[in-house]
Fold these 4 entries.
Entry 1:
Amino acid sequence: MLIRDYRPEDFPQVEALWKETGIYTTERGDTAEIIVRCNQSGGKFMVMEEEPTGFVAGTSWITWDGRRLYLHHFAIRPDLQGKGLGRSLALKSLEFAREKNAPMKLEVHQSNLHAIHLYRSLGFKVFEDYDIYMNLDTGTAFDAH
């Protein structure tokens, strides 16, 4: 497997992988243009490519807010899970964090035990006294007044 930087022509395969793994819906607004914009702002999007076929086997999207990195859309194709590929991609992602000298934050569903095991084995700590809130429809904030 080859881990390389994302190219815009990867997006159809990336989108298919995200849908296959259940981490993506079109409503989220994650587009090829957004990926490029995030990379231009200091982030990095890595693709794990199956050789020699060129098929996308995994993704790691790292965004940067100027003080910390966020790991998003970390996915390995289901038929390739459990073979150490996620660990390889995660280590490459952490290498980028080390180069930027920045902490990395992520979110994971509580039911995703394999991912939780991987992240904990790589030194990620859970913040058990935090809840995550997100307003997906900012218009409702104004309607509430």
Entry 2:
Amino acid sequence: MSWRALILNNAGWKVVSLVLAVLIWGVLNAGLQSKLKPMGTRLFPHQPITVMTTAQDDRVFRVEPATVEVSVSGPPDVLLQLHPGDIEAYVNLTTVMEAKRLRKRIQVYLPAGVSVSRVSPGEVFVQVVPFEVTNSPPQTPR
């Protein structure tokens, strides 16, 4: 079989195959380029934990431990501009009605473009602190 017959035989199918191959390559290449952008990580130790409750909830809670270590990942330029105050670690207790001591998962709110890599510890103990009312008058120092 000659070279000319090899190239021109089923030329329509060959053109369609070439067009499909170029389209598939373009889609995959675009998807890989977005995933191959350089990403960095940054560690924020001693982030305080906020307790989220409803406005009507007058209970007092103690969280153990009181701080967590949050590791975030994202584009290096975004990570450089990130401040510890931009990260909010919290425990959502809006659905907890009756409990004395429980374990809750830490949730983290971050600015756009940044994602959580790790939270350590991932869970904390939450304890309801009994509210004590004293009827004795305040003592004045002598």
Entry 3:
Amino acid sequence: MQKLNFPTSSTYDIANRDGCDLILDPLRQKYVVLTPEEWVRQNFVRYLIEGLGYPQGRTAIETGFVFQGMQCRADVLVYDTKGKALLMAECKAPEVKITQQVFDQIGRYNTVVQATYLIVTNGLQHYCCAIDRKNNSYRFIDTLPRYEDIVKKRE
């Protein structure tokens, strides 16, 4: 798979079954098809957990929710100590350009999820913004925040 713009992580458990590459997803505790988007998602989640201290037990992949009567899924959701959405990420394959449409998608999803931080990544480029509900605004931030830093702000 393509090298991505995340710090080097531990090895991945990759298998081939019936000519199909699979990767073990430790959060879902099962093998999933290793698509380019899944490769980005697995690398991103590892970076969150191993590099930024996000608890594995509060991190979920492909969490379903209903948006305007349609079933949708958040690629990655991280919850705070009270079970509220803290961070939501939208992962795209490396060849997918990060466009306004991608930001619009995660913004629409966040009208339901209500996460404080939104991240969009294709594994090569990462964008993170902090939502300020009091002032009905957002701001882009240069680096992804560590879990302990953003949980402290909420307490």
Entry 4:
Amino acid sequence: MVLLPRLTAFAEAYPDIVLDVVTVTGPVDLVAGEFDAGIQLGEYIQKDMIAVRVTQELRLAVIGSPGYFSSRSIPRKPKDLNDHRCIGLRLPGGPYRWEFEKGRKAVTVGVNGPLIIDDTHLVIQAALAGAGLGLAFEEQVAEYVAKRRLIRVLEDWTPPIPGFFMYYPSRQHQPAALSALTNALRAS
């Protein structure tokens, strides 16, 4: 969602820079791992890092396939998820407890189901296959929802979240390649 849409333009503008990309689902110590930078949701970035916004605010979407809903009711409130098979999402620290908010009311649900997956792309594929309700970013599922391959539920319970940031340790002399990447990814 962050790097790939801008990769071609970056590679054309900076043909001598090689990006060595590593994907990790848990916390990363950039200094110990000898990484120049990372990309993470804002809430997971350590306070001593420089953070640059690389996406606008995001929204999560609860989705299920038409086949899944052919024999099940559509949840109207977060607590209705207790009556559904849900595809868990593993984040750093363990399975994510789904968080919802509507007006001043905040609700957290520890969902249950047949799978716990650490990749939202796989969650989407499992939801498309009818394995249960999944949670992914709105942007990731918009096309499936538009084509009616997925049904979005509880939309009024999913407020925006801060989004992704590129982060890196404070340095006296930032490498030119990192400055170029920061400028290319910076959210407008």
